[in-house]
Amino acid sequence: MEELDEEQIEDMKDCYSIFDRKGDLKVESEKLIDVLRSLGLNPLTEDVDKCINDSKLKGTRVDFETFYGIYKYISTKPTVGSYADMVEGLKTLDREQTGMVNSAELRHILLNVADKMTEEQVNVSLSPHETGDGQIPYEQVIKSVMAG
Predict the structure, then answer these.
(1) How many CB atoms lie within 10 A of CB 47?
(2) Rounded distance, CA 28 to CA 76, Å?
(3) Cα–Cα distance between 95 and 98 in angstroms, integer?
(4) Is the dihedral of CA 140, 135, 130, 47 positive or negative?
(5) Nearest to residue 17, comparing CAs of 56, 73, 63?
(6) Range 49-71 average pLDDT
(7) Which whole number is the average pLDDT over 18-34?
(8) In 3D, which of 101, 94, 90 has the Cα closest to residue 137?
(9) Domains in the chain and their CATH numbers?
(10) Are strands 26-28 and 61-63 parallel, antiparallel or unpaired?
(11) Sequence-ordered list of residues with C-beta below 8 angstroms from that of 23, at least 6 positions apart, any chain
(12) What is the 3-class SS of the chain, one letter each residue?
């Protein structure tokens, strides 16, 4: 990873401060993955949890300097999947090639396969996009999730 310049670090701090609920430039450890994703990374929950546990940060509020170290570490890990990768993966569920997938089928996958999501995370991610007939426009969902 190339070193970030002062402006990029300030932009990171601005993003980080959005997740700061107390105004002390600290974020709850369980929200760090959300901050990383909002900064354009796509880490596995397992990798972030390991980093937090190894650093004995679980259940604490993490300052920006500590987070920056985590960011640098996670950013060196191979990217799990790009937008194009995710679209390609969900196309396998789009049997009619309509740009839509069945909501129940996608929910089941997100709740039960690989880097599992909680029911609340699935609802937050999918509900705003779900059509009346139980379909999800998957490209729109991927863009929304990747945008944080």
Answers:
(1) 16
(2) 23
(3) 8
(4) negative
(5) 63
(6) 95
(7) 94
(8) 101
(9) 6-76 (1.10.238.10), 83-147 (1.10.238.10)
(10) antiparallel
(11) none
(12) CCCCCHHHHHHHHHHHHHCCCCCCCEEEHHHHHHHHHHCCCCCCHHHHHHHHHHCCCCCCEEEHHHHHHHHHHHHHCCCCCCHHHHHHHHHCCCCCCCCEEEHHHHHHHHHHCCCCCCHHHHHHHHHHHCCCCCEEEHHHHHHHHHHC
Residue whose entry in the numeric block shows the structure tokens 């997740």: 19
Q: Which of 74-88, 89-103, 117-131 has the lowest mean pLDDT?
A: 74-88
pLDDT of 1 higher than 70: no
Position 108, amino acid = H
Tokens of 96: 């009619």
Q: Which amino acid is at 24?
A: D
The answer to whether the Cα torsion of 81, 82, 88, 90 is positive or negative is: positive
